[in-house]
Design goal:
With 502 residues, the chain is of the alpha/beta class. It folds into two domains: 375 residues, Pectate Lyase C-like, CATH 2.160.20; 79 residues, Cytochrome c-like domain (Cytochrome Bc1 Complex, Chain D, domain 2). Strand 1, helix 2 and strand 2 form a beta-alpha-beta unit. The relative contact order is 0.12. The N terminus is likely disordered. The structure holds heme C. Heme C (HEC) binds next to helix 5, helix 6 and helix 7.
């Protein structure tokens, strides 16, 4: 996500908001409780799987009863390669230094925990990714993943996933990163020390992120260009930013909506922002509990949000974001944000200057729990007088008090996503390469123009390079290998990159 800068509009907003905001009567009414449930965002028919215990089975039962056991000294990847779809692969405790690619459906990769000892995937600071999958109905459970440089668990276009009970520690850029998937569960994981987002749901639908502990990372949990996501009962602390729901412009999927953020502990997310300079999360102000940017129909309910030094909740838009090229196909505003009852305490005690300046425009004193900067329509709040707020005086009172009628947005297993060969290149390019390569300027990697000159009619050569990049430029970092993309996709993305026009 992009760095952002809200100063630009402060003055404009000041003009429109500096109305009569003071001197409300303070007779401390009982908590407003409209006694009604959320009716938005969801149609029950055909939706909502039933829960059995705390576990949500979106992958369905095992497709076969074949079970393979990998012991220390063996190779998990070899077991995956030899497996038929539907195989359960049990991995015994021990240390495994490898990258596992799963391009088959129904693989259940389960670590066996014996007397507290787990199967440990150790990248030794050298390997890029621990587990990458593109298969559907994949389950990854019970691993410890540490010291990788890129991703802990990442997926491309797999549906019906369950990622559960993994410890992902000091691992690269993304801890758990499903991209372009539908119908997935991420629960009971512990994720820490991640340079970008610990849990990053990208361009996905029908997702449930629950009971995770996420800390010491730049961004805790991100819901990006995704719909129908519930983020609940997580403990999110000591990141630079806690929970984020937003749209990154320019990606092939253009919206984020129907996100419920409820019953989380979001505390002291005051970590120094240690994202790679120029990376998209580098601009999140440290101390931000929840950030909503350009996402619609986000409900924030029942969270305990405390000790976040910049602000408890920030609602903003693309217009206030630095470095963002507004995408004409994405609505830049956060509309219909619904803030129900939350417990907020001791936020905003060291807010960034622009928020302090914004407070002044409303003649507010104190430390901001809730900050809204930028246009929004249809947003509402319950009991605003409980918090220190700025920019929410035009929110209406929400006409419902709870989302507890919505257990989850999950589905019975859905069919695999179909992606045409042509779209394959475009999606991979926008989802992966564009984060590091811009058409003209330098990002993390060299400009596409330069690459086009180098590889003019040689898509095949480019595809080979990205599978196994070699270090070429002393003034650039290494490019991470893209060999988790299958050969066809590598060629498609190479072609797409070479044909790209500004
Ligand atoms: C994490 C950042 C990152 C991502 C993601 C990334 N690249 Fe790169 N890329 C780099 C860097 C850094 C270099 C420069 C490496 C060097 O010169 O040693 C590079 C170099 C290249 C080159 C130049 C090769 C040469 O011979 O000079 C090509 C081609 C390329 N990338 C294609 C891609 C494609 C296609 C994708 C998406 C599938 C992609 N890159 C994703 C960072 C990235």
């Amino acid at each position: 996500m992009k760095s952002w800068n809200v100063l630009g509009v402060v003055l404009i907003l000041a003009a429109s908001l500096a109305g009569p905001v003071m001197a409300k009567e303070k007779n401390s009414p009982a908590t407003k409780d409209n006694g009604t449930f959320y009716s938005g965002g969801f149609t029950r028919e055909g939706n909502a799987i039933t829960l059995s215990g705390s576990s949500k089975s979106v992958a369905g039962p095992p497709m076969s009863d074949v079970v393979v056991v990998v012991k220390e000294g063996g190779s998990i990847q070899a077991a995956v390669q030899n497996a038929d779809p539907g195989t359960t692969i049990l991995v015994m405790p021990g240390i495994y230094s490898e990258t596992v690619y799963i391009d088959k459906d129904g693989i259940r990769l389960i670590g066996v925990i014996e007397e507290g000892e787990r199967a440990i995937l150790d990248g030794e600071g050298k390997l890029n990714d621990a587990i990458l999958y593109s298969g559907n109905n994949v389950v990854v459970e019970n691993f410890t993943i540490t010291r990788y440089k890129g991703n802990g668990i990442m997926s491309q276009a797999g549906n019906n996933w369950e990622i559960r009970n993994n410890l992902i520690i000091d691992t690269g850029v993304y801890g758990i990163f499903p991209q372009l998937g539908k119908n997935g569960v991420i629960e009971h994981n512990v994720v820490s020390g991640i340079e970008d987002a610990a849990i990053y749901v990208g361009m996905s639908d029908n997702v449930h992120v629950a009971y995770n502990a996420v800390f010491d990372s730049v961004a805790g949990i991100e819901i990006e260009n995704s719909r129908h996501a519930i983020v609940e009962a997580n403990h999110v602390y000591n990141n630079a930013g806690g929970i984020l729901a937003f749209i990154t412009p320019g990606l092939p999927i253009k919206t984020t909506f129907d996100v419920i953020i409820r019953n989380n502990f979001i505390t002291a997310n005051n970590h120094v922002n240690f994202a790679a300079p120029g990376s998209t999360v580098a601009g999140i102000p440290s101390g931000t509990g929840i950030l909503v940017m350009a996402a619609d129909d986000v409900v924030i309910e029942g969270n305990i949000i405390r000790d976040n030094k910049n602000a408890g909740i920030i609602i903003t838009d693309h217009g206030n974001a630095d470095n963002i090229t507004v995408d004409p196909d994405s609505d830049p505003n956060s509309d219909r944000v619904k803030i129900l009852n939350n417990t907020m305490l001791n936020n905003g005690y060291d807010a960034i200057g622009m928020i302090k300046a914004y407070m002044l425009t409303e003649l507010k004193t104190g430390h901001p729990d809730i900050v809204r900067i930028g246009p929004t329509t249809g947003s509402c709040i319950l009991n605003p007088d409980r918090y220190v707020t700025v920019g929410v005086s035009d929110f209406t009172e929400c006409d419902f008090h709870s989302t507890s009628n919505i257990g989850n947005y999950l589905l019975a297993p859905v069919p695999p996503r179909e992606i045409s060969a042509q779209d394959r290149g475009k999606i991979a390019y926008l989802g992966i390469c564009a984060g590091c390569h811009a058409y003209t300027g330098r990002l993390i990697g060299p400009p596409v123009q330069v690459i086009q000159a180098l590889y003019m009619n040689n898509a095949k050569g480019l595809a080979e390079y990205i599978a196994k990049p070699i270090k070429k430029r002393s003034d650039y970092p290494e490019m991470p290998p893209q060999n988790y993309l299958d050969e066809e996709t590598r060629l498609a993305v190479a072609q797409y990159m070479l044909e790209l026009k500004n």
